[in-house]
Amino acid sequence: MRHAVAIARVIAGALMLAACAHGAWHEAGIALPRAPAGGRVQVLLEVELGAIGSGQEVVLRTQDGQLIGTASPHGIRSGRAAGTYLIPVPARVLASLQGGRRLHLRAWIERAGAEPREADEDEVLDIRLAPRAE
């Protein structure tokens, strides 16, 4: 029964993510699942990238600027999608939510020697919540 409830929460969280990020993935609010009784939840974000420039990275941060993680594609041919990356949400970020169950994040494009800029929907194609109980 717990397994079914956890699966339902994951699906609901993914649907809420899609609704919050309609049109552009550079900013999203994600509803997080509750930990099962006696367990912890490790929250993983599955980030699907489109074509990005050589040497560029996609950096995920909370609204207040805390680093969540970075996808650093290498060896991707020009004009091709950069692939899908799993980025774990650090425990310190989850702890800073102060009991809240919603993670607000932004995606940035960074490159050495250039100013960071917000990613657009052609660069960050999808972000899916992929939590798992430990």
TrEMBL record:
<feature type="signal peptide">
    <location>
        <begin position="1"/>
        <end position="23"/>
    </location>
</feature>
<keyword id="KW-0732">Signal</keyword>
<protein>
    <recommendedName>
        <fullName>Lipoprotein</fullName>
    </recommendedName>
</protein>
